[in-house]
Known about the structure:
Blueprint: H1 2-11, H2 16-19, H3 26-39, H4 45-57, H5 64-72, H6 79-88, H7 94-104, H8 113-121, H9 128-139, H10 146-158, H11 162-171, H12 178-190, H13 194-203, H14 209-221, H15 225-234, H16 240-252, H17 256-267, H18 276-289, H19 292-304, H20 311-323, H21 327-336, H22 342-354, H23 358-371, H24 377-390, H25 393-406, H26 413-425, H27 429-437, H28 445-457, H29 461-474, H30 479-491, H31 495-508
Amino acid sequence: MRVAARIIEQLHHLSLSQALTALNAPSHLHQTHAHLIVSGLASHPFTAARLLACAALSPSISDLPYAKTIFLHTHDPTPFMFNTIIMASSKTLDSITFYVCMLHADHFPDNFTFPSLIKSSSASPTSLLGTQLHGHVVKFGLERDVFVVNNMIAMYSSFRELGTARKVFDESFSLVDVVSWTTLITGLANSGQIDDARKMFDLMPLKNTVSWNAMISGYARSGRISEARNLFDEMPERDAASWSAMVSGYSQGGMCNEALELFKEMVSGDKMIPNEAALVSAVSACAQLRALEEGRWLHRYIKEKKIWISVTLGTVLLNMYGKCGSISEAARVFKSMPERNVYSWNSMIAGLALNGCGKESLSLFWLMRFVGPSPNAITFIGLLSGCSHSGLINEGQWLFSLMTQVYGIKPQLEHYGCMVDLLGRAGLVKEALDFVETMPMKPHPELWGALVGACRIHGEVELGEELGKHLIVLEPHHGGRYALLSNIFAAAQRWDDAAMVRDLVKGRKVLKNPGNSIVET
């Protein structure tokens, strides 16, 4: 009884934040609710409102389904209770349903009602719902509340309606705050309107770290890395997100050495503890550079700092080890992951395939079918590539059939490329040609190139000549196409024909291109 009395006393605390700490376990919520019902206090509006707030908003025991049950069994809910359940439901459109009930109960919404509703409208496929809520904001005279204004700017920005977001900002210019400026700048930067974002940023009277970070990320996404770095260097203060934005910008822009150098500067002397995004970008940079020792150092750093390895971080680590050729370390990371998603399985399968372990990738695929997520198109690219590198012809043909007939995955150009590569490597050039000719899409020149290469390797001179000439017709200015045909003639010791192709290249002034492949190896 003393415990119940203490909890009820805490529920009635003048401070709502203090009241939300009254219950610290889900069982306490149910027990307290039962006690309030038995004692008759559950019908007291203030007590019922505080219990609802605990169930809906408490950081330690929030239980939204139970909160909805409390609300639905409350006779004549107060405006505070409507606002509470609307706020708790703001991640879904359920909040709109409660709002309609609030209006039907003849309660007027206030400045606590609309921020949650406007946030909910972002879950809608279009801005129509948000626009309707904007109308209600004006109807109830709340368009001059800065919290409501900021949420409207964020809502319109999320739908890329930056003109309307800017109009809301301009109409409320006398009351906008640093959050208003930052929200609009972030929306402009995220939508690719980086120059407009910069103009707003330069006009901003008081810049905060979030606005600096938004600009750095925006410049990086636009490929303007030097401008991002200039802003980064100008920042008066940086947080983990600032460093992460710059490291990610370098990594995604292919400037992997710069990404690693900046990451090392970030963590030197424990200057800053990196967030997950920075770690993922740094490990990704190692994968792109095939820098195994740097990747191992990063993995050790993660372990030494006792940083939790999420499914995203774990996946990028095993992907790095696979691309760097250390498939055993990739396997250890994969096995140690408490949670795996389809990207984790795909990365492990692709790593095995990349390192010539075609049979092992098939074994892992069998395990995936039983205990993992459903495979997707990327899964089969890795599997077919593994079969190609390991000469597993029957298995590759079976996988292609399984993909289309069992999983209903429509083959993409990469899948056809893997199959042509598989058949071509095995010397089944005519079968590969038949496969290409049955494709429902127009074959890409790279597919024809793979076939011509297979003809050269396996001595199919006549077919190689025919396909090689066809490829030159398709891409008359691609130097690599002429080289393929010339090599076929040279392999057959048809020197005059090889010389003729070289003369053709000179006569047409065709530049020599570096080779590429449709199948990533």
